[in-house]
From TrEMBL:
The keyword Transferase applies. One of its GO terms (molecular function) is glutamine-fructose-6-phosphate transaminase (isomerizing) activity. Keywords: Aminotransferase, Cytoplasm, Glutamine amidotransferase, Repeat, Transferase. Catalyzes the first step in hexosamine metabolism, converting fructose-6P into glucosamine-6P using glutamine as a nitrogen source. The chain holds residues 273 to 634 of 634 of the full protein. Its main location: cytoplasm. This is Glutamine--fructose-6-phosphate aminotransferase [isomerizing]. The gene is glmS. The keyword Transferase applies.
Length: 362
């Protein structure tokens, strides 16, 4: 066990720190100049709409990708929780593509959804980390994430790798749909350059992030509840941040869309109910900041995660480097925060209570 952890105290920490390599590995063989190669999908038609189905962290990755699929592929996307999808009477469109996401490839509900869609005659693309798993074998086509074995029950690097594949999927369909539009081509090339730069940026940022995570974990270890807020591409990350905190440290946490808090949840805010807010340097920045100020004016404490070059009046600021894909840095930052919190509180980081790595029962 000691050797497998490569000197790290826990598998989770090792897996968080491996993420620059995961980013690199996920891109191997996938890029040719400014083109994305997903030959696994070349034989399938460009879908009219996409339905993404998954559970837990994999669901959060799917929800995140909706923004990029709509932006770059201009394909409408629905994202569903597998256990809900299976027991409805879903109405699928004729030209719909089903995408199931599963790290393990063995999650019972996700597998059940895959089988249901296949029975109905729909092509199902699996995004999966485990070679030869049930999802990989049964899907019409499988895009393997290159995260390597994930031992810690809490999923970290697998989500990052799913996000890379999903972004590539968005760019790939954008390519197939808008091959000749020079404006769209330029936009795709721009985001690909941001993606290619990420491994190095993350590598440099991780040690600094770890120090910051430790400091904030100690400072906020008093909390019995936490809000995680995000808007746009940060919304699904807020859900993931909250999931990580609760499963590892057993602190109650809720992820919310920043714009929704004034519709009820803000009633909970007081000095003992802190918020972890994601304020990326994008079109939503000013709106997110005004949400944060509303919380502060009700005496709520806030950890605000910002990108370098932006400003906000707040005591606890957590700066991450500038990039057009801040989600790939914010995710490890939040993972480290939950890790440090759980370790500080003496919880079983790699094997949280009541949880299994893959949920093979319904
Ligand atoms: C996340 O930390 C959890 N371990 C859990 O939510 C997990 O993502 C979920 O059970 C789905 O697993 P899968 O990706 O293997 O299908």
């Amino acid at each position: 066990q000691g050797a497998a952890k490569d000197g790290y105290k826990h598998f989770m920490l090792k897996e968080i720190m491996e993420q620059p390599k995961v980013l690199r590995d996920c891109l191997v063989g996938r890029l040719q100049d400014d083109r994305v190669c997903l030959p696994e999908l070349d034989g399938l038609p460009v879908p009219g709409s996409i339905r993404i189905i998954a559970c837990g962290t994999s669901y959060n990755a799917g929800l995140w990708s909706q923004y990029y699929l709509e932006q770059f592929a201009e394909i409408p996307v629905i994202v569903e929780i597998a256990s809900e999808f299976r027991y409805r009477k879903p109405i699928l469109k004729a030209d719909e593509l089903i995408v199931v996401i599963s790290q393990s490839g063995e999650t019972a509900d996700t597998l059940g959804a895959l089988r249901l869609c296949k029975e109905k005659g729909y092509p199902v693309v699996g995004i999966c980390n485990v070679l030869g798993s049930s999802v990989a074998r049964e899907a019409s086509a499988c895009l393997y994430t290159q995260a390597g074995p994930e031992i810690s029950v809490a999923s970290t690097k697998a989500m990052l790798s799913q996000m890379v594949l999903l972004l590539l999927l968005a760019l790939y369909y954008g390519q197939r749909k808008n091959a000749d539009c020079s404006h769209a081509k330029k936009l795709r090339a721009g985001i690909l350059n941001e993606l290619k730069a990420l491994p190095e940026i993350l590598e440099g940022a991780l040690p600094v992030m770890r120090d910051k995570a430790k400091k904030f974990a100690y400072q906020y270890a008093y909390a019995k509840s936490f809000f995680y807020l995000g808007r746009g591409t940060a919304y699904s990350l807020a859900l993931e941040g909250a999931l990580k905190l609760k499963e590892l440290s057993y602190i109650h946490a809720e992820g919310y869309a920043t714009g929704e808090i004034k519709h009820g949840p803000i009633a909970l805010i007081d000095p003992d109910f802190p918020t972890f807010a994601l304020a990326f340097d994008d079109d939503n920045f000013n709106k997110v900041c005004s949400g944060i100020l509303e919380i502060k004016s009700r005496q709520g404490n806030v950890i605000a995660l910002l990108q370098e070059g932006t400003e906000l009046e707040n005591n606890d600021l957590w700066y991450i480097p500038q990039t057009k894909l801040p989600e790939f840095l914010a995710l490890p930052a939040m993972q480290l925060f939950s890790y440090e919190m759980a370790d500080y509180l003496g919880k079983d980081v790699d094997q949280p209570r009541n949880l299994a790595k893959s949920v093979t029962v319904e």
